Amino acid sequence: MSAQEERDALTLPPALYDYALHLLHESPDGIPPRRGFPLSQQPEPGESPLSLSPEESQGAIRDALNPLPDDSATLHSRFAQLGIRDSSMHLMLIQSAVAGLPLPTEQWDAARSLARQLTRTGTTAPAVTAGLALLTRLGTSEDIPYLSVLGLLRKFTRPAVEALDALDPQSAAVVWLSCYARHDELRPLVHALQRGEQSAIRAELVAFPAESRLLNTTVARRIAEAARLPDLLGRHPSDTVLLARAGRLLVRTGCARDAPTDLLAYRDALTVYESVVTRAGLLPPTLDNHATLLSLALDLSSGPGVLLDWPPGRRMTLLESLGRLLAEPRWASLPDTEAGGADQRLRAGWIRRTGRQPFRDPTTPGRLRVEVVAGDPVDREPVETRILLDGRPVVPAYFGSGPAHSPEYLLDEGRLRAGSEPCKVQLAEASCTEGCCGALYVTIRRDGDQVVWENWQRPPTMPGSKSPAPELAACRFDAAAYDAEIARAETDRSWSWPARTTARLIKAGLKERPDLLSRWDAKRGWIGSGFDAPDTTEVTFVYAPGLGSGKPDGIALQFRWIVPDDGTPPEEQAAAALNRLTEEDPKTYGQVCGGTRERAEELGFSWPERN
């Protein structure tokens, strides 16, 4: 070796695996910062700024990987020579290219050997990313410790977790939580999971506040996976606190507002359902536990729980078991006897309205069933119009990126009715917006004595996976049975509560008499029960001078009018609200909630102070 080569060898950057291991050992609490350790690398000698277009980058990556080299040094060199850097675009293109590489069986051993060189000794992000992508396809249990360490580096968390998910979901979940659990309340649990101390894991699992703000579907699933929840329940069969927490995690994993497909991705979901439901009689009868068991029953009846791979008859057996338990006097009397704060009163009212819904048989026979399901109001869960075809819920089965639309949208507006002309209907929209993650559409038409649902439209991949979504077949229904089921669903208001009913009646009144707002140069906006305060009615409207005459002058302002539930019947509250609109300008009692500060001040209104 020449003197220059010796100097180069001495100045080579460390393997990124070693770098991650060093950062982990130096971390004060043994876990990385949120989002993972940053990948701080010095530019390689002669490295130029990113200059390749996406198309050029894609071609260069294909050239670098074809053919796969026998050693990691060659791939390092190819990436460097072709201008492949550690940009997010390049790393994503590398993952995609490796995922699509044709790898005959006889090449697996060589490709796996290369992947291990890249992940264990690789010194650049592109090289390590290629190794991670290969291990996603070819990894074995031998690779778990290395993937678990590399996943703590910010740029490698997602590909490492993807590789680990196929090998060891528990390790994948620990890495995911270490980097993505952003709430301080979860850090002690993450620390215990990272250390692997079983007694500490159990203690921290039941200690953190299991509020909905901390537990979206993915966080709940990853906690269940990381804690090895079935094993934990098996070691503590009489631990009712742990049992209640397991039920809570199961509920949050399948909640509709986020991504209910997390429940379908949770491999131990059936086992945890079995443990929680068969031992539910051990739980003390409280409103919180009642809400958990009722939420599980609603999922088993018409939610994503239906879609799990149940043994024949087992789901209905568990559902019937919950029905018998919650009908016992010690549980059934809870909503009428247990006092509490505002949230508990909301929950008690919800249980009174919804408590027997999941245990009732369908009132009309046929392939189609429409269930309006209001979720736990304490969790601010949505009200969904769940549509079941042959007993299977359509939205989580075909879409899964958000809840089914509300009954106000699908039923009050008559969108599910079958008319003589085909009608395209949106059944659900992604929680983030359609423009981000899509929506689910179907075209409904009448064909003689049948109703047809056809021309389904949804995102190109299956819910919760990267697999291509197959084209959905048309569904045919007996028209008389279809019309009867839609009519029944439209007139069933048993799920509603006073503020929600008041909102519906105000909205209906303003649709009949738009002049109630137009006389004040205002136009109806969204009307419903409050999200943060479900026992209030929110009326929103927009205002601009001249809007009532159809000639608005300038940018409109948005106003919100809060109508609290005063305890009188909703019909009286709605009539009073409509009468007030007749007599008083709503801008004098509504509050500005949208538009611009400049426009509000120009028109003489106060701009709201934001917390």
Tally of DSSP helical segments = 30
Going by helix content, strand content and strand pairing, the class is alpha+beta
Task: Report strand order across the widest sheet.
Answer: 4-5-6-7
Low-confidence stretches: 1-10, 42-48
DSSP, total strands: 11
Main sheet makeup? 4 strands, antiparallel
Portion in beta strands:
5-15%
Approximate helicity band: 40-55%
Q: Judging from the principal axes of the Cα atoms, what is the shape?
A: globular
State Rg. Answer: 29 Å
End-to-end distance, in Å? 65 Å
Short description:
The protein contains 30 helices and eleven strands. It is of the alpha+beta class. The chain has a four-stranded antiparallel β-sheet with strand order 4-5-6-7. It has a four-stranded antiparallel β-sheet with strand order 8-9-10-11, covered by helices on one side.
